[in-house]
Amino acid sequence: MRIINLAYVIVALSVLISIYYYPILPDQVVSHWGINGEPNGYASKTFILALVPGLSILFVLLFLVLPRIDPMKENIAKFRNYYQGIIVLLVGFLLYLQIITIVWNLGFQFQMIQALAPALAVLFYVIGVTLQHSKRNWFLGIRTPWTLSSDAVWEKTHRIGGHLFKLSGLIALLGVIYPQYALPLIIIPIIATAIYTTVYSYFEYAKIKGSIKEKTATTRQSVRKTRKAPVRRR
Predict the structure, then answer these.
(1) Strand pairing partners for 44?
(2) Predicted pLDDT at 211
């Protein structure tokens, strides 16, 4: 079975859940929670129950179209299974978000950020795995001017970026144990990873370009010396 089929199943399940719980939920439901875990935003149940299925369908369609329009589409084909796995992961995360939102509005209250921590941990970790298998493309990955300009820089940046994303996932998981610190445990490692990989890609690109220039200069000097060398006559 193709991995993408699992995404279709998750989207269908999301639609069925919305249909089932529509007559059960109140007209106004909690849609947003503050840093302290207290509800601070409300919306109509029609909007909330339509939001996740709608976003899921949009994500699936978008991710199916992107490889067709990417100038480096042949590179995406090289890690197709991981690419499709990301689609499944995203719609699965949205389904989880839909379920815990419904559960809260049915009267089962809990720390929302604590409930999100394990899902985000899995999301970050699997993204890390995918990054380490990705090939240069325009839509998925750590896309800086320097990674997009060099396969070598892309590979090195995504190798270390993958490790950092996986580490961020493990740190985010601590939010389950320490809910009072869940938000910084989720946000800070990801921000640090984004900054580090951007800077890292720049210096790797500069290092490779410097090495190329040095080799080119050495080659030119060798050619000049060869041309200047006297020709021995017999």
Answers:
(1) 28
(2) 64
Bridge partners of residue 43, in order along the sequence:
29
Phi/psi of residue 146, nearest 5 degrees:
-90, -35
CA-atom Rg of the chain in angstroms:
25
Degrees to nearest 5, angle at CA 176 with 175 and 182:
25
Q: Which of 78, 110, 142 is the last residue of a domain?
A: 110
Q: Which range (35-39, 70-74, 137-141) has the least confidence?
A: 35-39
Query: Global pTM?
Result: 0.86
pLDDT in tens, 27-71: 999 988 887 778 888 999 999 999 999 999 999 999 999 999 999
CB of 20 within 8 A of CB of 102?
no
User: Domain limits at 38?
Assistant: 1-110
Same domain for 126 and 153, yes or no, is: yes
Residue 176 exposed, middle or buried by CB count within 10 Å (0-12, 13-18, 19+): middle
Give domain status of residue 207, yes or no.
yes
How far is residue 229's CA from residue 20's CA, in Å, rounded to a whole number? 87
